[in-house]
Design a protein that fits this description.
The complex is a heterodimer.
Chain A lengths: L2 H21 L4 H6 L3 H12 L6 H15 L5 H15 L1 H5 L3 H26 L11 H30 L6
Helix pairs in contact in A: 1-3, 1-4, 3-5, 3-8, 4-5, 5-7, 7-8
Chain B lengths: L23 H21 L1 H12 L1 H46 L5 H18 L2 E10 L6 E5 L11 E4 L2 E9 L3 E6 L6 E6 L5 E6 L6 E4 L12 E4 L11 E9 L8 E6 L8 E5 L1 H6 L1
Antiparallel strand pairs in B: 1-2, 1-12, 2-5, 3-4, 3-12, 4-5, 6-7, 6-9, 7-8, 8-11, 9-10, 10-11
The chains are: A mainly alpha, B alpha+beta.
């Protein structure tokens, strides 16, 4: 099999596994603050192999997540696109950071993603009655911190399999 | 001594720092496409047309995602089977004694039995108005909870048909695919359900407040005499929903001076995360009858 296609399939497999893990039945409280594994996987591959993640995979997986989560179409694509652009734009700075510093970067990126998601829900609903007395904002905040907390785990697991499975072109 | 693997195939000649990042024009193009998709979805509701069919394609994903839970359920039930069977034997023995006693009075209640039989026959006829569906996925987003159900190929489902569980009304069918359908829950902020208060006899509309947040009665006059704890059932107005199924109980009534209407919160009876089997009320069959 062509090496490029093989690599692309492996990367897509990562996205599919993250999507399935994100779809797992979480309980009511964990539902909103569960870590955004697909977003973290996108960020990782954009940092590791920026030229292997294109608009196509961003739109396909964003679209699938919208369908599964019942969100309006396009909102997750926009989130993944923004995260991918920022990861690629600042990846010179990001790659040389210590893992702890990277986690802080991930927290800020997740906050931005949650802000986009919230603006999307605000546009979709005429009013936001669900916000009354709920922990919606706290959950989104917690989600960002959880994303930062599990970033080292995602990073090491993905890096291990990237080194094992992805073979780049030789000189 | 372990030998490290320095295979040349693992070493890349790609100068990673020379990799070009995503061009700004591509980012703008992607943003434009995403916003276009969002606007199209908001204005034309295209997602409701394709969601049902896409859920058919996503069933393998749900199957894999539900696999650990199913394995846990199987293990749990197999471990508990012996204890449960023993309990069942005890309860059946109790029931046998009860039946033996009841048999003694059989002749005296023969007449009532004839009447009951006619009632049961009527209930059997009504069963045909319902379709059984099973849950395939449930996303408990606060602002947009969605239940996905699977139905038999031969069953015909329509939009806005009522979805019921043993606890009461769950929601309405919002999108239909080949063998899967999406259900808009009554806790969805976009859901409006006409109800009838059992004690007060008042009609009104319950709007969802998000999953886990219950609902509220909207536009209720300040003079309305609702009672705390009152059961609200479907009124059947509008034709889509059958009448008489529980929606929820009135949780709190507050009369705030700065509001034109009463602020009434409702505890919804049905929780779709607890149930796996649902009934869909086929209003078209009812109309045909």
């Amino acid at each position: 099999m062509n090496r490029d296609i093989r690599n692309q399939l492996f990367i897509s497999l990562f996205f599919i596994i993250s999507l399935i893990l994100e779809t797992l039945n979480w309980n009511l409280i964990a539902g909103e603050m569960k870590p955004s594994l697909l977003l973290l996987t996108f960020i990782y591959w954009n940092l590791a192999l920026p030229n292997k993640v294109g608009l196509g995979s961003i739109f396909i997986f964003g679209f699938l997540l919208d369908l599964i989560d019942g969100n309006m179409l396009g909102i997750n694509s926009l989130i993944f696109l923004t995260a991918s652009y920022l990861s690629q734009r600042f990846f010179y700075q990001f790659r040389v950071m210590h893992l702890f510093q990277q986690s802080i970067g991930i927290i800020f990126m997740s906050l931005l993603a949650n802000l986009i998601f919230f603006i999307g829900s605000f546009i979709e609903q005429d009013n936001l009655p669900f916000l009354e007395g709920s922990f919606y904002f706290y959950n989104l905040l917690l989600n960002s911190f959880l994303n930062g907390a599990i970033w080292p785990l995602v990073f090491y697991i993905s890096r291990y399999y990237r080194r094992k499975l992805i073979v780049l072109d030789r000189a | 001594m372990p030998v490290k693997n320095y295979r040349s195939t693992k070493i890349s000649s790609e100068a990673i720092f020379a990799t070009p990042s995503m061009r700004f024009s591509r980012f703008i193009l992607g943003t434009f496409l995403s916003i276009l998709l969002i606007i199209a979805d908001l204005n034309t509701q295209i997602s409701s047309y394709i969601r049902g069919f896409s859920q058919d394609l996503l069933r393998p994903v749900y199957f894999v995602a539900e696999f650990p839970r199913n394995i846990y359920n199987i293990l749990d039930s197999s471990l508990n089977t012996r204890i449960e069977l023993n309990k069942k034997i005890v309860s059946l023995e109790e029931q046998i004694v009860l039946l033996q006693i009841n048999n003694l009075t059989l002749n005296s209640i023969k007449r009532e039995n004839t009447e009951l039989k006619s009632l049961i026959d009527k209930a059997q006829d009504e069963i045909n108005l319902f379709l059984f569906v099973t849950k395939t996925n449930f996303t408990n987003n606060s602002y947009n909870p969605v239940l996905t159900v699977k139905f038999k190929k031969n069953d015909i489902l329509g939009l806005n048909q009522a979805v019921l569980s043993k606890q009461g009304l769950v929601g309405k069918v919002s999108s239909v695919g080949r063998t899967t359908a999406e259900v808009q829950l009554i806790s969805d902020p976009n859901s409006l359900i006409p109800f009838l208060g059992i004690e007060s006899g008042l009609h009104g509309i319950v709007q969802g407040k998000g999953f886990g947040q219950g609902g509220s009665i909207i536009n209720s006059k300040k003079t309305a005499q609702y009672k705390k704890g009152e059961l609200l059932v479907t009124s059947g107005l509008g034709g889509d929903l059958p009448a008489g199924y529980p929606i929820g109980y009135i949780d709190n009534i507050s009369d705030l001076a700065d509001l034109n209407f009463l602020d009434i919160s409702v505890n919804l009876t049905a929780n779709p995360s607890d149930a796996d089997l649902f009934l869909i009320f086929n209003s078209s069959l009812k109309d045909n009858e």
